[in-house]
Specification:
The chain is of the alpha+beta class. 41% of the residues lie in helices and 21% in strands. It binds adenosine-5'-diphosphate, zinc ion and magnesium ion. Adenosine-5'-diphosphate (ADP) binds next to strand 1, strand 9 and strand 10.
């Protein structure tokens, strides 16, 4: 049996978060009404001249530095010529031939994926396909993009998943992009080939139209199997660009791949060579801050939480910042992380609020946690307070006003427990016959009548004492 091996390299396009487009002053907003954020430059009128957006260069340099690239002191713009209705000029301006950064690295688990280069270029417009016709929206035309190209270092579909996830995390941390794949802010195009172990690499095929990182993994897995199947049948694999079909979960051939010569690259005559001064690089280095991997290591040591909890916290900068902010006052790792990850995240999810828009301030949350820590309120009450404290005064006052202090006195609770049991004689006898699951029902009823104020531990103890 011959053993096959897969080789994967990934090209990722990322929209940069700038106010305006790369070569004109149109707002870089693609969600507005179609063809409203356009001007003669980004519509490709003859005689117009591009003017480079400095902020885009800064963000590209920041990304290159964060990915461990060497930043070149000059970059050159070229024209990549091709015809497509969403590209009014007939060429794309790109620095792909003389990129901004080179030779970077991303570590995934115990392996390193080399980044060949990162270059700055402009986005194309968008085609909107209708039943009998296609329309062009140029709002996106001229958006600043960076393209990040890896060496063919990835071997498994899962590694591609981890790579893309890590890359997205870094880009969001350093604030260069929202990098939301569903919105097309991050587009991931893997190249895949297969060969018999020990022999030279095979011919690669590229997959486009992958709309989530999960689909990247699925698409690669499908393509590897398909190529192995073809090779086993004695077929040759030809260079091609494939489209991922999300519904049927297969790849379909879109076009035979152009070779690089087809693009007739030449230097862009309307833009000078881009010089990247040392001061700009220094300035961007300072903007990077703590990167996710370093933060994971530090937080693991500092808080002694489980790795899986640290992973969730660090995966989103806003979440990790919030946790660390709350911790300064609450000073209780277990309560703080548990409450944020379960109760607060649950509360926000129910309302469809992104963590970045969390309405509950760090001060208020640490006050709630201190109230729990000091045994003044139960976790249930704390959870129920969340919807109310975003508008009104301090949690402490609210607890007083609404009389939400924890009930712990055994005497007081005993009469409440007895009351509940008297109300549910059927359940009690079924419980005594062995339906032990009803225990939770009784606890729940006590919680309901006390509006969550009863100390669940005491309630459990009393229930056991009374009904055995
Ligand atoms: P081109 O010059 O045609 O643009 P590149 O050499 O730039 O091709 O490679 C584009 C992408 O394909 C890179 O991410 C690279 O790592 C990947 N790649 C190159 N060779 C292979 C291969 N044999 N199998 C899979 N991916 C490959
Ligand atoms: Zn414009
Ligand atoms: Mg290339």
């Amino acid at each position: 049996m011959q053993e096959y091996e897969a080789i994967i390299g990934i090209e990722i396009h990322v929209q940069l978060r700038t106010n305006t487009k790369l070569f004109c002053s149109c707002p870089a907003v693609y969600t507005d009404e179609v063809n409203t954020n356009v001007c003669p430059i980004c519509q490709g009128f003859p005689g117009t001249l591009p003017v480079l957006n400095e902020q885009a260069v800064k963000l590209a340099v920041r990304a290159a530095l964060a990915l461990g690239c060497k930043v070149n002191s000059t970059a050159t713009f070229s024209r990549k010529n091709y015809f497509y209705p969403d590209l009014p000029k007939g060429y794309q301006i790109t620095t792909c031939e003389h990129p901004i950064g080179e030779n970077g690295i991303i570590n995934i688990d115990n392996r390193s994926i080399r980044i060949r280069q990162i270059h700055l270029e402009e986005d194309s417009g968008k085609l909107i396909h209708m039943k009998d016709e296609s329309l062009v929206d140029l709002n996106r035309a001229g958006f600043p993009l960076i393209e990040i190209v890896t060496e063919p270092d990835i071997r498994e579909p899962k590694e591609a998943y981890i790579y893309a996830t890590k890359l997205r995390e870094i880009l969001r941390y350093i604030g260069v992009s929202n990098a939301d794949m569903e919105k097309g802010e991050l587009r991931c195009e893997p190249n895949i080939s297969v060969h018999i172990k020990g022999e030279p690499f095979g011919t690669r095929r590229e997959i486009k139209n992958l709309n989530s990182i999960k689909q990247v993994e699925e698409g690669i897995r499908y393509e590897i199997e398909r190529q192995i199947y073809m090779l086993k049948k004695g077929k040759t694999i030809r260079r091609a660009t494939l489209l991922w079909d999300e519904k049927s979960k297969i790849t379909k051939e879109m076009r035979r791949k152009e070779t690089e010569e087809d693009y007739r690259y030449f230097d862009e005559p309307d833009l000078p060579v881009l010089c990247i001064p040392h001061s700009l690089i220094k300035e961007q280095e300072k903007q990077i801050g703590e990167l996710p991997d370093d933060r994971r290591d530090r937080m693991l040591k500092q808080y002694g939480l489980e790795k899986k909890d640290i992973d969730i916290l660090v995966s989103r900068k806003a979440l990790a910042d919030y946790f660390e902010g709350v911790m300064k006052n609450s000073n209780n790792v277990k309560l703080t992380s548990g409450f944020i990850l379960v109760e607060l995240v649950g509360f926000l999810n129910e309302r469809g609020i992104k963590f970045e828009n969390n309405p509950i301030s760090q001060d208020k949350l640490s006050e709630i946690i201190c109230l729990m820590k000091d045994g003044i309120i139960t976790r249930t009450v704390a959870r129920n307070l969340l919807p109310r404290i975003s508008e009104r005064g301090s949690p402490k006052q609210l607890v007083k006003q609404l009389g939400l202090e924890k009930i712990e006195g055994e005497k007081e609770l005993e009469s409440i427990v007895k009351n509940i049991l008297n109300k549910h004689p059927d359940e009690v006898s079924r419980y005594k016959e062995g339906k032990s699951g009803l225990f939770g029902f009784f606890v729940g009823e006590v919680m309901k009548t006390t509006r969550g104020k009863a100390n669940p531990k005491v309630v459990g103890k009393l229930l056991k004492k009374i009904i055995g």
